[in-house]
Amino acid sequence: MNFIKVNGVVLHYRLSGPQSGPTLVFSNSLGTDFRIWDSVIAALPRGLRVLCYDKRGHGLSDCPAPPFAMDDHIGDAAALMDALDIKATAFIGLSVGGIIGQGLAAARPDLMRALILCDTAHRIGPTSMWDQRIAQVRAGGIEAIAENILERWFPARFHREQPAALAGMYHMLTRTPDDGYIGTSAAIRDTDFTDSTAGLMLPVLCLGGRHDGATPPDLVASLAALIPGTRHEIIEDAGHLPCVDQPDALAGLIERFLAENGLI
After folding, report:
1. CA separation for the pair 46, 31 (Å, rounded)
2. Which domain, by its residues, includes 117?
């Protein structure tokens, strides 16, 4: 296990692969840790240098008291990459990880050659939705909303056919610190990257699960439409976390996009 202190916060990360290889950075969603990417990474070509990390308030990273701002998450990602001397990367972000990726691409274009935005948007949900969710977690912990979250995360097939995996994802979600969930929810609530994302000038791939109940396909399509030249793909029979329920399909789309843009 690897830990580093940046911006006053200890982050847990994993850096694997040859130093000379093309570099990918993975940023995960609200209520998960970087293990959600393991099956995708295993399906990608060998020889890649891969960085995964737990953002503040998640996994084994520090959980400072909320509120957090999205700039805190973006600053943490930038500081981690700087500390590890990672530049010219392909950044792959899921849900809030995709929001972090959009902000990082706008603030630090030197760190990126390409951006893959998975099940995310330039703005997610109305303020009232996040306020309600924050109030529920404060009153009853993440357990109070966990079943509803899992319904939005995974299609019905996954619920029927993979009860053990579903239970594992429940544990990952509910073992996220309440303060980490609340702080990051507030950061998402307060973020609208419509203008800055529309100005991005790098290769972008937008992906969404057909059955995503958290960032539905129409929302992902609206994100793709903002950025000139963006490729938009739908992953069939996937929900909000295709890295968990359709990892091979997601890895295939990532590999094709990277190859077409000369990144692998």
Report:
1. 29
2. 2-260
Query: Please, what is the average pLDDT of the chain?
Result: 97
CA pair distance 188, 95, nearest whole angstrom: 10
Number of domains in the chain: 1
pLDDT tens digits for range 108-158? 999 999 999 999 999 999 999 999 999 999 999 999 999 999 999 999 999
Tens digit of pLDDT for each residue in 165-208?
999 999 999 999 999 999 999 999 999 999 999 999 999 999 99
Q: What is the DSSP letter of 67?
A: P
**Rounded to a whole number, what is the distance in angstroms from the first to the last CA of the chain?**
27
On whether the CB atoms of residues 66 and 72 are closer than 8 A, the answer is no
Asked whether 25 and 89 are in contact (CB, 8 A), the reply is yes
Q: Which residues, at least 6 apart from 7, have a Cβ–Cβ distance to it below 8 Å? A: 72, 75, 76, 79
Tell how many helices (H) and how many strands (E) occur in the chain.
12, 8
Record the tokens describing residue 249, joined without a space.
Answer: 């399909």
The CATH number of the domain holding residue 17 is: 3.40.50.1820
pTM: 0.98
